[in-house]
Every structure is written in C-alpha cells, then in structure tokens.
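Thread: quick sanity check before group meeting

JM: Hey all, I'm pulling together slides for Thursday and realized we never actually wrote out the predicted structure for the chain we discussed last week. Dropping the sequence here so it's in one place. If anyone has concerns about the input, flag it before I start.
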Amino acid sequence: MKFLKKICGLCQLPLPPKNPDSTYTLPLIENAPIILKELPPPHDSIAMSSALATGVPLNEPLLTRLLEANLFFQGTLGSVISITQTKNTITLYKECKLNSFEIFKNTLEDFANITEYWQKEIKKYLHNQPHDRRDT
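JM (edit): ok, ran it. Output follows.
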C-alpha cells in the first residue's frame, strides 16, 4: 500500500501485515484502531475507518448528536459517522486521495484526532444521558 511504510516509520509503528480482507490495521488510537484499505483504480484513494463504539444503546439524544455532527461534516472534519443496525456499532469513515504523502499524513492525522474525539464524546453521552421526561 502506497505510503504505509513511510507513515509507520513516522509514527514509530511496526509495519502491519495485510489482513485477509486486504486491509491494514494501524493501532493509532486505543480501543479504536484505524483500518486502511486501498481502493481499486481509478480511485487512487485509501479508505479509512474506525469502529468508535460497539453494542451501544442507541437513544434519541445520542442519535441527534451524531446526525448534527454529520450535517455538512461540521463535527467530523470531513468524515462520515454511520451506525450498523445489527451490532449497534458506530463507525467513522473517510476517503483520501493519494496525491502526496503530505496529504495522506495530514488526512490520517485529522482522522485519528476526530476518531479519538468521537470515541470520548460517545462515552460522555452514554454516561451522562439526559433524563427523558417520558420515563417519569
């Protein structure tokens, strides 16, 4: 994968092996490794994804917060937050053109930062859930 060896050297990480699904796992964020997958031509891009939380109880305040973040990418630095229906897994996703190493490095850094932010934000939301008046 283009730039993988260089980014691993810069981050002082061992070069990860290729996973069976042709992805690479970078353990940049604790409990939310970043998965990289090279997209086939003509894309010349890399897809980045990270599972922010799994088995999350999906409540209205959390879903509203996630929708607001996705609106015009205002809370995601250009990434997209999605939720799987089967496992209630909240995932962050972004694609990056492979124009230059500098673009890739900066995009990966932004993605790691927003991954860490949302991982903490979701935990805060789950621990400090606003009281729903309909329950009283």
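AS: nice. The CA atoms of residues 121 and 127 lie 10 Å apart. The chain has three helices and five strands.
JM: adding both to the slides.
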